[in-house]
Amino acid sequence: MGTHTGREIHLAARPDGWPTVDDFRLVEVAVPEPGPEQVLIRNRYLSVDPYMRGRMDDVKSYLPPFKLDAVLDGGAVGEVVAAGDGVTALSPGDLVLHNFGWREFAVAPVRHVRRVDPPAGVGPSAYLGALGMPGLTAYVGLLDIAGMRPGDRVFVSAAAGAVGSLAGQIAKLRGASRVVGSAGSAAKVARLAELGFDAGFDYHDGPVRDSLKAAAPDGIDVYFDNVGGDHLAAAIDRMRLHGRAALCGMISVYNAGVPVPGPANLPLMIGKRLTLRGFLVLDHDDRRPEFDAEMAGWLADGKIRFDETVVDGIANAPEAFIGMLGGQNTGKMVIHLTG
Amino acid sequence: MGTHTGREIHLAARPDGWPTVDDFRLVEVAVPEPGPEQVLIRNRYLSVDPYMRGRMDDVKSYLPPFKLDAVLDGGAVGEVVAAGDGVTALSPGDLVLHNFGWREFAVAPVRHVRRVDPPAGVGPSAYLGALGMPGLTAYVGLLDIAGMRPGDRVFVSAAAGAVGSLAGQIAKLRGASRVVGSAGSAAKVARLAELGFDAGFDYHDGPVRDSLKAAAPDGIDVYFDNVGGDHLAAAIDRMRLHGRAALCGMISVYNAGVPVPGPANLPLMIGKRLTLRGFLVLDHDDRRPEFDAEMAGWLADGKIRFDETVVDGIANAPEAFIGMLGGQNTGKMVIHLTG
Question: Which class is domain B4-129+307-336?
Fold first, then answer.
């Protein structure tokens, strides 16, 4: 072990509305040796997630804001290259999942690092996707928060995204009678059909309300919301009695810069006895064992397919992130680090 | 029994926005004798309820629209004056609760009539209020839909109204740590203090958001919504983690005539893990036995006080209804019929 230098992405400025590449800075730093109970990790995949946009604002939220001129820590998978004194649970060569991302090398306390062991045919980046936070988010949101039951009619927005594509497929596997998805391009809508969605539409093709009505003529029981705005209003319109929505994200308003009025049709919630429920996956770690087992089985059996949009090189992470906010990804977006 | 004539209120026109007295018509009709399994009832109290506004529009909803040029049936309490063939469960002189209101005399099938027997000190009109639909609505909405637990901080809108005043008092009796109410006049706010609310404000005195912040500086866990609009947005703003709102009514938008944009702060629902849930009391008849027993006990012990705004004479029902929509009532509004 010599001394390493590594590159990392800093937050250079807080975005005003849509982020630009100037809000980020690539910095080269010296990487310290791991101290007691720490490991040095060479990251292989960095996670690019919508929730990071929220942490770029200086507002109180469920996670602290990113600091200016400091690394944008996010999810990552890497390989242990050195272990400090007292480390017994991990050895060099081990693959680990952690939240010290958006840098090439990370020094992390062992207790904040989870060793992972991909099943046959599953790559390490799956722990940032189908087997990771997006997978558990889809699983908990659909089954626990929205309480999807066999026979339900389900609508998923941003359905070609990491969470949405899993939510739709899980719905089918768990017995939904019909699953409809919205996405942002004709190519993505075509992909939804391949993933087993019963219908899909490009939300650019007209008012979401009209498109959803055509795709779900008998209404919906469950809405998995990644988008908010017009999508949420349309879902409330189409909901049947006792409909439930899991509010997972509202990517349509994250970069608006000004408050966006909510749905004008909330009064329908009374007569139709609707429930809207927001959730964060970090409350639901108790569901991980069941999720891990079920999802690993689905992946092994080829019953769930998981798309990735892979961008090479840490220097491209800011542009990739901005692209994801604009919907340029299909499935999970990750940064692949080589060398 | 001779032949009766009786007066009733018809819907003369569907209101466009706020109803006017011209939308109603007082009609004198011949009252038929009760047929088999029917009773003839002389009504004593007619119920004046906000939900009736919705039935005046010709839209599909949980209850069918009122028909034009036909009686506005609503809740009523009256006295049986004659029974048809085969009626064994009821006798002349019995006090009954039913939904054949807004007329002086009603002929009703026995199976749609419920005999009531007011405890000492409780008048017949209580079955249109504390012991009736508004009482059960407050009870179910607060305890089942919003899931209020001891120690919760509770906010109730339209808190001087029939449902709101009961919701606030039930919250205190069931262990809420703080109960805040909004109302539409200084006199009503003063009444909230007498009913045991910890704080109250007149929503005319400034932005609801500011008033609620001052009245609930530590936030709220539960919101009982009778109003919608700005009140709902303010509640979402002030909600603590895992806050729950029972959506009971949205009187602020019923007469708007045009769609009113919803709260712009719905994205807060995700980070704070909030739940908004609409409900109708008609789904919750299974709760009636427990409610009846508990409410009767509270009334007998003087632990719940229930205000009534009593208007005399069926001819004044339309004006009373319009006044109630504008907040002229304190507590439950009823029409008292004499003669």
Answer: alpha beta
Which residues lie below 8 Å from residue B30, measured CB to CB, with a gap of 6+? B3, B4, B5
Size of chain A, expressed as the number of residues it contains: 339
Sign of the CA dihedral with B101 first, then B104, B107, and B110 last: positive
Collapsing DSSP to helix, strand or coil, A71 comes out as strand
pLDDT over 90 for what percent of chain A? Answer: 86
- Chain A interface, best mutation among B55, B62, B255, B266, by max A CB count within 10 A: B266
Task: Looking at the complex, report in whole angstroms how far the Cα of residue B336 sits from the nearest Cα belonging to chain A.
Answer: 29
Full DSSP string of B198-228: SEEEEGGGS-HHHHHHHH-TT-EEEEEESS-
> Residue B259 and residue B256: Cα distance in Å, rounded?
7
Contacts of B264 in chain A (CB under 8 A): 259-262
**Checking DSSP bridges between strand B308-312 and strand B332-336, what pairing results, if any?**
parallel
More confident residue, A14 or A251: A14
pTM for the complete prediction? 0.91
**Cβ within 8 Å, pair B270-A278:** yes
B262 in helix, strand or coil?
Answer: strand
User: What tens digit of pLDDT does each residue of A150-202 get?
Assistant: 999 999 999 999 999 999 999 999 999 999 999 999 999 999 999 999 999 99
Taking the C-alpha atoms of residue A336 and residue A302, their distance in angstroms, rounded to an integer, is: 24
Task: List the single best residue of A260, A270, A281 to mutate versus B (max B Cβ within 10 A).
Answer: A270
Amino acid at site A220: I
Residue A17 confidence class, pLDDT cut points 50, 70, 90: confident
Q: What is the pLDDT of residues A199-231, one digit of tens each?
A: 999 999 999 999 999 999 999 999 999 999 999
Query: Residue B337 CB: number of other CB atoms within 10 A?
Result: 23
Structure tokens at A283: 């409350």
Q: How many CB pairs under 8 A join A and B?
A: 104
Residue range A4-126+307-336 forms a domain whose CATH class is alpha beta
Amino acid at site B255: N
Backbone phi, then psi, for A89, in 5-degree steps?
Answer: -80, -20
As a whole number of angstroms, the distance between CA A238 and CA A263 comes to: 13
Going by C-beta distance under 8 Å and a sequence separation of 6 or more, which residues neighbour residue A144? A284, A287
Every domain range in chain A assigned CATH 3.40.50.720: 133-282
d(CA B220, CA B156): 10
Query: Are B277 and A261 in contact (CB < 8 Å)?
Result: no
Residue A2: predicted pLDDT: 52
The answer to whether the beta carbons of residues B166 and B159 sit under 8 Å apart is: no
Burial classification of residue A86, based on how many CB atoms lie within 10 Å of its CB (0-12 exposed, 13-18 middle, 19 or more buried): exposed
Sequence-ordered list of residues with C-beta below 8 angstroms from that of A252, at least 6 positions apart, any chain: A227, A228, A229, A230, A231, A260
Q: What is the largest CA-CA distance in chain A?
A: 68
Residues of chain B with CATH 3.90.180.10: 4-129+307-336
ipTM: 0.90
Segment A229-247 shows an average pLDDT of 97
Superfamily of domain B133-282: NAD(P)-binding Rossmann-like Domain (3.40.50.720)
Of B217, B207, B266, B264, the residue nearest B238 (C-alpha): B217
> Under DSSP, is residue A214 helix (H, G, I), strand (E, B) or coil?
helix
